Amino acid sequence: MNRSSRQGPVVAMLLATTLSSHAASPVGDPAAGAAAFRMCASCHQVGPSAHSVFGPQLNGVIGRRAGTLADYAYSPAMRKSGIVWNEQTLARFLRDPGDTVPGTKMRLWGIGDERKIANLLAYLRQYPPVK
To answer: Any bridge partners for residue 84, and if so which?
Structure first.
């Protein structure tokens, strides 16, 4: 058995491990998400009295069509994006808002820490739409 034939199974195993770790997103911790949300709170609100200010309020954001809150003036790009916010689309947007929705008004460079994104999503899941 030559060296390259011995490396094949090892390379395949490493590749499978890498792919599966990227496919599964971390579960997230709502308490850590609350701490991480502090950086968002200058523009966004959540909770029973939340309203849109510099950014849209985020109650019920998961499952909501992007650019549809009546009390916020979204960018034309966001209104036309066709995105429905779910775990994957929100994570992608948090990683790189400008790449996800070119022309967005979001003023965030992006979050590169997957754990922080998972924590933020866990925190936001706690806030259904306010009736």
So the answer is: 65
Distance CA 86, CA 90 (A): 6
Structural domain boundaries enclosing 54: 29-125
State pTM to two decimals. 0.78
Spatial separation of the C-alpha atoms in residues 51 and 59, rounded to whole Å: 9
**Tens of pLDDT along 58-71?**
999 999 999 999 99
Tell me the CATH number at 46: 1.10.760.10
Q: What's the domain count of the chain?
A: 1
Answer whether 23's CB lies under 8 Å from 112's CB. Answer: no
For residues 116 and 36, the answer to whether their CB atoms sit within 8 Å is: yes
Nearest to 116 by CA among 35, 15, 23, 14: 35
Tokens of 109: 């460079």
